[in-house]
């Protein structure tokens, strides 16, 4: 299966779909490329780049998204016509301000801590290979500048490596915002675990440990297993099971049934209520931090899987990158202190996503920034909702009113039970599961 992208009448690119996500190796890879003549890509970021190791051990890097590709001299778009990617993390300040997009804007990638080099040569897409070891899946650092050969003392961990004389690495799950995630087998207990690696002194280490001391092993919360240091990183190990909700939504074309949306939200509210009773806030509820798994009774369970931003209730607001995301409340995005209400609002936004309603998505009202989008939704949520999802607007406004009065978990649960007549949120989530082929689908 391939992807075909047309650049103009005479040139097109065919890219193979098979590859690995760039995110886990993005900071270790140097792109030796040069710009295609008269073309600017307009969307250089980890999600638009693919990597594949061939039979000779070479890593081939190719671009996979040309929706914003254009000639290098188009006029700048007016503010009302800005493309959504201009608001992204990997865009230059000039592009975000609405100026003409030029080749140098393709080179700027703030998160990778280095300059993206221009693309190989005219017509060279996929790009010329960078030497890569297929055995260890590790970049040959002789091809990196001397300043980057020993970047911050972190080591790429091979599949099969045993850490702390206990955890055998199975696969790399990804990397984000200075954190690496790996799946491994606990050789002592013969169970699958998640390993999260941070640089020493990262405050998220303490956040995980403090949270697990109080909440680990509760319904919907993983069991804390170990904390250790090795290979220039500190690791948190906790139990792992299930499939991320984001993967399930991707497989379902971003939509699940109304019945299962309500059942999912009900379970998330119950989990968070238990966490709140222990004195903690999660502060990062989104499809990527929610997992679903089939339990011993063949029922689909819902769990949380990430706690790097968890904090005690009434913790003062802090500079936190998650507040810029679509799943945070307007109050938090404006810099307000996180509360139980904000955790619950995140669940409402997750349920909207399950219904294919995405008022804060980059592709929705792309001329607005994320705060403006949330202000518009806050002013009139029903204008963004379908008749079938209007009850989520009711629930949102009920939570907003509680901010000035008194928060009540019981009132929210009662409202959810009567949201759609005939749907009992306590009934089982219906699903299709095929472990042999590695997928789980919510109906």
Automatic annotation (TrEMBL):
PROSITE patterns: PROTEIN_KINASE_DOM (PS50011)
SUPFAM superfamilies, alphabetized: Protein kinase-like (PK-like)
Domain of life assignment: Eukaryota
Protein kinase domain mapped to chain residues: 167-443
InterPro entries: CK1_Ser-Thr_kinase, Kinase-like_dom_sf, Prot_kinase_dom
Molecular function GO labels: ATP binding; protein kinase activity
Protein name according to UniProt: Protein kinase domain-containing protein
Organism: Caenorhabditis briggsae
């Amino acid at each position: 299966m391939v992807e075909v992208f047309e650049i103009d009448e005479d040139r097109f690119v065919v890219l193979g779909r098979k590859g690995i996500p760039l995110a886990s190796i993005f900071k270790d890879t140097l792109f030796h490329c040069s710009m295609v003549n008269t073309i600017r890509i307009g969307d250089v970021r980890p999600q638009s780049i693919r990597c594949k190791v061939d039979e000779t051990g070479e890593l081939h890097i190719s671009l996979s998204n040309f929706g914003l590709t254009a000639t290098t001299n188009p006029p700048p778009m007016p503010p009302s016509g800005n493309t959504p990617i201009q608001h992204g993390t990997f865009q230059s300040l000039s592009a975000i301000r609405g100026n003409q997009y030029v080749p140098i804007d393709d080179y700027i990638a703030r998160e990778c801590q280095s300059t993206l080099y221009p693309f190989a040569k005219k017509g060279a897409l996929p790009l010329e290979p960078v030497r890569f070891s297929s055995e260890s899946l590790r970049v040959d650092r002789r091809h990196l500048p001397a300043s980057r050969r020993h970047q911050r003392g972190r080591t790429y961990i091979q599949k099969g490596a045993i850490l702390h004389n206990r955890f055998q690495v199975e696969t790399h799950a990804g990397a984000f915002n200075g954190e690496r995630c790996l799946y491994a087998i606990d050789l002592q207990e013969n169970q699958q675990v998640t390993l999260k690696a941070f640089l020493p002194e990262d405050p998220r280490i303490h956040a995980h440990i403090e949270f697990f001391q109080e909440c680990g092993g509760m319904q919907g919360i993983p069991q804390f297993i170990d904390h250790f240091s090795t290979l220039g990183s500190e690791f948190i190990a906790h139990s792992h099971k299930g499939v991320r909700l984001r993967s399930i939504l991707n497989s379902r074309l971003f939509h699940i049934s109304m019945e299962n949306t309500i059942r999912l939200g009900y379970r998330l509210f119950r989990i968070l209520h238990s966490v709140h009773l222990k004195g903690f806030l999660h502060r990062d509820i989104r499809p990527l931090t929610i997992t679903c798994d089939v339990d011993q009774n063949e029922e689909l369970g819902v769990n949380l899987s990430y706690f790097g931003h968890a904090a005690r209730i009434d913790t003062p607001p802090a500079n936190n990158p998650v507040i810029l995301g679509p799943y945070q409340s307007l109050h938090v995005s404006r810099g307000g202190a996180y509360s139980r209400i904000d955790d619950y609002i995140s669940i409402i936004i997750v349920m909207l996503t399950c219904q294919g309603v995405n008022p804060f998505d980059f592709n929705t009202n792309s001329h607005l920034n994320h705060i403006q989008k949330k202000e518009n939704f806050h002013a009139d949520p029903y204008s963004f909702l379908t008749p079938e999802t209007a009850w989520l607007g009711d629930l949102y406004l009920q939570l907003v009113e509680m901010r000035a009065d008194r928060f009540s978990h019981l009132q929210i649960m009662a409202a959810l039970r009567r949201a759609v007549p005939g749907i009992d949120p306590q009934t089982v989530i219906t699903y299709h599961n095929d472990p042999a082929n590695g997928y789980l689908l919510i109906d």
